[in-house]
Amino acid sequence: MRDPASEATTDMTAWSAKLGPGEAESFLDKVVKPATANGVELLVVRADMVFGMDHLRSALYHARRSMQEGRNASDSLAMETLLYASGERQLSSAIKKMSIDEQTEEIVVAKLNEGSFEPVGDWQRLSDSPEGSIERLVRFGITKEELSTLKGRNPAELVLERVAAVDILKK
Length: 171
Known about the structure:
four-stranded antiparallel β-sheet
């Protein structure tokens, strides 16, 4: 079956990486700032709020489409992707939910556009669609009503539904 999100995001790659306590700010200075200076758009988010490459591909696909159609909430592809990845309506809520802070110990770094960027250290490629535990889904904001609709499906599919629903929520 044809997957428009996968076809439209072939230039995206993503990794997970572990941070030590209090290393978030230095990580951003050491990795993100130089990449951004070279024109590479990076999305850096909490790993516990990411449900695999399918989640990020869908968010990037919807973000690019909203920017092409002039419906974007942000001028930055990374911020627009963050909004969709969060499944939230407001950027402020998306930032609160997905952004790393000094307590973050595992992150996901996604390269959103073409350009040279290589992971540093012991980073792992992100898998396509890992199983989402019920506890993680609830922390993401999935409701009991939504969970009751699973009936044998991969729980992470509920996150993909949330990503797609951002277009409706933004109106």
